[in-house]
Amino acid sequence: MRAPSSGLRLLPPTFIAALCLFVASASALAGSGGVCFDTCSNTLRQPQFNDTQSYNGSLPSRSRLIPQCVSQLHIKSLYLCADLHCDLTHRVAGLSNVNHTCQAYMNTSLPPFEIVAGYSDEEIAGLRRLTKAEGSNSSTVLNEVVLPADAYYQIWFDSLESVEYTYGNHYRYGFYVIVFWFIVVAIGLGSRLISAIGNLQKQEWDSRKSSSILHWSALWLKRYITVPATFGYRCSQNLGWCTIPPRIQSLTIFTFVATNVFFCVHGYWIFSGHMYWPQKYHLVWRYVADRTGIISFANFPIIWLFGMRNNLLMWLTGWDFGTYNNFHRWVARVSTLQAVIHSVGYVVLVFDDGDWNYWMSYWHQMWWIEGWFATVGMCALLFASVFWMRRKQYELFLILHILLSILVLITMLG
């Protein structure tokens, strides 16, 4: 049997999307110097060291690089902090990255690490310790080498660890929802092979009045899992404005929904006093909004693949278009709900940071407008795809489906 050519064109984008999410998970983690070096950098970022002149130019990024690349007090403080808290590998990697930035944007290089070699343990112990109140205030002026206080260093370390852990899970779980369907397809392919081998062995050994274990396995799957209705006696039943698929499809859909729920609620590190989002509920909303947005986007290649009438997966598993169409609709429903939670989360965050005028200011930013068009488009697609619309107004359903899908695709990619 010849595989449909359109399916061959659909699989590579799905693999590419999964790979991109996997690569993105790595980029979401800490920098090359690890959490310890990033912690040292962040504890020293806000205070002003008075051994450099302020920058009066038009490039804000350059003003932030002056203390990092030029201030001897800042550099020595960073070197000592990294020496105290980081191992050699992370310290070298972090300083190498900073040095590359200084060379590229400030046309200067960091001094050698040996400039702090003369500090004795007693001198290091006697250095001023920067508190959270001082280190978080840009008006703090320092005229000496400092080190972050233990409590200040720890809260920054925990904050960065929380971000690394949580955002790492964001992208990992987004990758896993795609892997889920490849596992389902692999099971379908295995089931088809078992059924085919069992039928061949049944034909061969029918005269001997005995059957192989593969034949009985295939028969059991067909009798109790793949063929029966989820409820009642009809394989696929209409229920109001929806349909109830066969048992195997219902089990697969339930597992998929449960997996997505787990991925959306698990894998957060929440605590009060976070350096980026100090209030706990603010932190929860930010993490949940990002998690649901990433997983919703990760579900898109599957929605697209399962919605096509001809694809390689139908040929591999032997499942008909109706099966994949049921999967298509349920992945779309889950993805839409995740997109709504994502959008609601950011509305809460925006109003928490400001008033109505602040909310309206976001409507001048293209990414915000595109996000809302995508979410509203997905909701409209969901409502336009109910069973009654598909059955009674198919032409209207098809036109709306195409137009809204184009809108969602453009705004999501934008």
Please indicate the count of domains: 2
Question: What is the radius of gyration computed over CA atoms, rounded to a whole number of angstroms?
Answer: 29 Å
Note the beta-strand portion. Answer: under 5%
User: So what's the overall shape?
Assistant: elongated
Subcellular location: Membrane
GO cellular component, one term: plasma membrane
GO molecular function: ferric-chelate reductase activity
Membrane topology: Multi-pass membrane protein
Report a brief summary of the structure:
The protein is mainly alpha-helical and 414 residues long. The chain is built from 18 helices and 6 strands. The longest helix has 56 residues, at 150-205.
Descriptors for this entry?
single chain; 414 residues; mainly alpha; 2 domains; 18 helices; disordered N terminus
Protein described:
This protein is mostly helical and 414 residues long. It folds into 2 domains: 234 residues, no CATH class; 115 residues, no CATH class. It contains 18 helices and 6 strands. The strands form 3 sheets. A two-stranded parallel sheet has the order 1-3. A two-stranded parallel sheet has the order 2-4. A two-stranded antiparallel sheet has the order 5-6. A hairpin with a 2-residue loop joins strand 5 and strand 6. Helix 1 packs antiparallel against helix 8, helix 3 crosses helix 5 and helix 10 runs parallel beside helix 14. The longest helix has 56 residues. It is elongated, with a radius of gyration of 29 Å. The protein starts with a helix and ends with a helix. One of its GO terms (cellular component) is plasma membrane. Keywords: Ion transport, Membrane, Signal, Transmembrane, Transmembrane helix, Transport. It is found in: Membrane. It is a multi-pass membrane protein. It holds the Pfam family Ferric_reduct.
